[in-house]
Fold this protein.
Amino acid sequence: MIIEFGHGTHVGLRREHNEDTYHGDATLGLWLVADGMGGHEHGEVASAIARSEVVGGVANGLSLVDAIAQANREIISHAQGRSEDLPMGTTIVAVKFFEQRFEAAWVGDSRIYQWHAGKLTQISADHSYVRTLVEQGIVTAEQARRHPHRNVITQALGVTDPESLRVERVDGQLSRGDQLLLCSDGLTEEVDEAAIAGLLAREDIGSQECVDQLILAALNHGGSDNITAILVRVR
């Protein structure tokens, strides 16, 4: 396979610090986005630890699930060594390629989408309060987008006890023309799936320009949070 990927992050229009981080490595076949939380430098530290632990763990032969669980323990350990009684956590989405297939894993409400055969599908499932409401039939998916508690998450690295952490994962196949989009909720909060699909469908722009356009769209719609996206294309 020939892999092309674009990447970018932006602080947004309402935040002073960018607590998101990301990593892309075509040689290792690993891509990830982590959305830190906790304010000040706490979210930045948590997302950076998650990135370091997952990249190092996968490079040393760990599965994505085990590497993410390891990152959770390390963030908790780091937080316990601090005097401040402030939360330190992060979401994470990660994808690892294995020739013609991939493994995806996540914790929190950052997302992974797959573009295949002209259709956009969210392959991750948000660890969020509103996802529970949708599954119970209390609200629709469209109502969930506007729900006042849409940003309340139920799992996060550094916040969820290791015994309770639920790292979800899926396996998938890769075909020529497929695209995988990893992003923080700063993108999906502002740009709906129809608009995302419209950009991924364009064959006249490269993956980097597509990411740039996605981030610009989020800024044009308010830029209420940090925005991070990685787009991986299979050529």
